[in-house]
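Intended use. Records such as the arginine--tRNA ligase entry shown here are meant for training and evaluating sequence-to-structure methods. They are not intended to support clinical decisions.
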Amino acid sequence: MSSSHNSINRSPSNTSNEVSENKFLKGQDGLPEAVESAPVLAPASSKGALLSISISCAMVAFGGFIFGWDTGTISGFVAQTDFLRRFGQKTHDGSHYLSKVRTGLIVSIFNIGCAIGGIVLSKLGDTHGRKKGLIVVVIIYIIGIIIQIASINKWYQYFIGRIISGLGVGGISVLSPMLISEVAPKQLRGTLVSCYQLMITLGIFLGYCTNYGTKTYTNSVQWRVPLGLCFAWALFMIGGMTFVPESPRFLVEKGLIEEARASLSTANRCSPDDPFIQQELDLIEASVEEARAAGEASWAELFSANMFKRTSMGVMIQSLQQLTGDNYFFYYGTIVFNAVGMDDSFETSIVFGVVNLASTCFSLYTVDKFGRRNCLLWGSIGMVCCYVVYASVGVTRLWANGRDHPSKGAGNCMICFACFYIFCFATTWAPIAYVIISETFPLRIKAKAMSIATAANWIWGFLIGFFTPFITGAINFSYGYVFMGCMVFAYFYVFFFVSETKGLTLEEVETMYAEGVLPWKSASWVPPSKRGTDYDATALMNDDKPFYKRMFALQKPNKLNDGDLILPLPKIALNIKDFPDLQQRIESILHEQDLFDKVVFKDSFIQFFFNTNIMMNKIIPEILIFGSQYGKVKCFPSKKIIVEFSSPNIAKPFHAGHLRSTIIGEFISNIFENFGWSVIRMNYLGDWGKQFGILAVGYEKFGDPLKLKADPITHLFEVYVKTNKLIEIEKSNNETDESSLSKQAQSFFRRMENGDLNALSLWNQFRNLSVEKYTQIYSKLGISFNIYSGESQIKQQSIVDILKQLKDMGLTRENNGATIMDLTPFNKNLGKIIISKSDNTSLYVTRDICTCIDRYNQYGFDKMIYVIASQQDLYMQQLFEIMRQLKVSWIDKLEHINFGMVKGMSTRRGNVVFLDTIIKEATNQMLNVMKSKKQLEVEKSKILDIAEKLGLSAILIQDMKSKRINSYEFDWKRMLSFEGNTGPYLQYTHSRLCAIESRIKDIVTVEDCKTANLSILNDKPEAIKLVRLLSQYHYILDKTLESLEPSTLVTYLFAISHQISICYNSLWVLGQPIEIATSHLALYLASKQILANGLRILGIKPIERM
């Protein structure tokens, strides 16, 4: 077995040129790093482009017209004299009629044909394409129509024709919404998929009108002319397919990349070279690769733990669409119209058809304006209200004076609510049921899932259509209460199980499901590429805890005004009303101890304020005595932790995508060291894989020894990008012979694995150059790693052993030659993961398993933290679950610390900005800012060094000042400001305190400050507030260690800096009497020490002079 040809970068990459064979393992949603980190682009399209794609989708949606035409015409056929004469039964007086059973069979058997066709014929969309599949099913529909028209007087011949035409319409009902959803722009997808329902209602309405026009004939013209028009609709549908682009997802699945690009270009009316087209193509390719890697979906997979929720949701939504009872209204509405003098059933149908059509037109606005969930929820409420009135009036008032004397007022009321019901149905459940199922399922199982969901719709349509005449004959209008109950159930089902997909791409919908977002919070979900700094992804995955669970017995308050300590009374089950003298009793007890100045009872809390004199005389001297050691505790002196962070790929530049992992990883290492842990900083390099084969082949073609010597990393990256582009072109042209660059790259990597000295020599050269460059960058950041590990360090025998162990434990199975591990039995959200490829090469997860075990055996760690981007949340969960199933006793010692993306760091072309460039730019801009600040005192010989440190401080603080899970915009202007919450502001505060110390050092020393008379500060509110802030340092460090959120410490340092600025205005040092100057300086030096200690934990070296 050979090792993997793939390498996953631990940090999100920002380059759109890096393509991995293993994209499906890149992130939580399976997207390549390039796609995740790239700016969100929009097509350079116009209103004309949107009109063009709308027309194309309308042609596809015309399949709904064919179904609606059948529904509209068949309801009239069963009442026409010639149809009854030919296919009905004769009475004793020579007239003809259709029994309820035969009527039900002729009308409803069509639904059974549709159900079968939806399941069986939808497969054509996967094998021959959506367009060709639609053409085939329309031809099947035509065959069914021919059989019906050819029927003379045999009802079972007509019955068979209905089944066959139903097969065709069933296929249409799956393939038509599917194709629309895959070619429509995401901002219009809901509207354009709803066109399918609009076409259904248009077909129903025109079918009604046609029946009304042919009812006066006495021969077969009555029903054969409407059937004959079906040929025109079918031919229009087939002809329209020539103007519609094929599904780009299908084309990518078949390896037709350029055709997919052309399809996207046509759909969006922009150039194939538009960056938006490339971005969309990358998304689709990643999704298809994930599906292909996981193997062909089976029917059983629809009911696996990972997919059952979505499958059942699709089936339920389609079933509930029928259980809204729309057929009940269309069938039983005639009786109500009779009550108000409208005896012509054809006129009744037209009235309902007009309301239905107009309402469906309105739905094109509502579906994308108000979202899927809101429409379904409010539609359910509206229909429940209609049923309550309609059924109640029908049961109690319509025939209050007997069936021969129906109440016209009651009838008018029922007609109004029947029409209002149709409005509610047509604007919500009718179109959105199709929208939901077209957006919900992953590509690889989409056809199967949509077919089974649609089949449920057809089956319920058959059951309701067949049994409604019998049920209404038995219970009359009480039948409405049954549907009302269904709608009440539908409301709660939608609320708890249906997620909002408005405005999301199909790939983003998959990401949302993968993240496990709660349906009732899904409207607030934001795709990873668009998340802002205040976005909290985890809040959408967990329900809010009850208040009492968030209480703690004794807490530090969030605001200083609330005290130094607070006690929530509900936590100790104490009702203050039961103890009216409680406040006086507590105050008397504490007063004797002289520990607190005051105790305040506020709402359900008791606020404790420490004695300021005691606090000052304890906190300030302690800080000055312990200095840089203040806040450091040896809680875990024998504990060992490995922190794996940064982890770039060899021979590729260290770019902004690695920045967050590096910054956060160093911070985590520092905070653990602060509490006495023995920390091993580990950099796990991507130093093995096919990428080196690509680089070697490319270097032979594009390499320049002079450029390599001058700037090795940049030159190697340029070579890699050029070569990779050529390989992509080869793939699109299906060039797979041995002379192709891809094959040459594989051959070179095989030589490396086989120990070829020349190949390994070149690999070593590239690796050493890269490590040397990385070391320089880490040195600028003040970071030093204990261990540089990498994929190349994994022993091949370890991979063989772990694969055998997984197989022997029954945890893996074979699928198309690949080794698959199904994790859904352990966690339904984890899905399946490929452990070994079909060519027996291992994958990244295999190597991570081996690495994890080797590290524990070698270091015996007490904790190991992976600092890896949130795009790989799913992958890390899968890795940890595999380790859990391997029964390792130390599984709870593994932890994944995730983080969001840095946005706004790409050039206009979407190319990555490398970290070297960022540091240089920050330094240059900082120099300009410093020159404009005349009050800054900087020695000329040190100005460049200070500017670089300030620039790095700016970068690091901007990264750490919000929760790490949040993405943030890279803002040069804001980041480099000396005002507000920025890195330069913290450094300026620290250097200003250093300057005060320097100016008075000949008069007052640090030793003097340790014994200062601090009671002088007792009447200074600004000083008291600052000391109270300083007293929280240990608490802040505890909270920081608990959450591993750098923002906790950063926010605290900002609070101290702002309070110091306030103190400057009144607590002067220079020019004051010695005793006062000493007390003020003691306060400032203690503040400076806390700032310095906090900055060092954040990985920032404090600047003493600016």
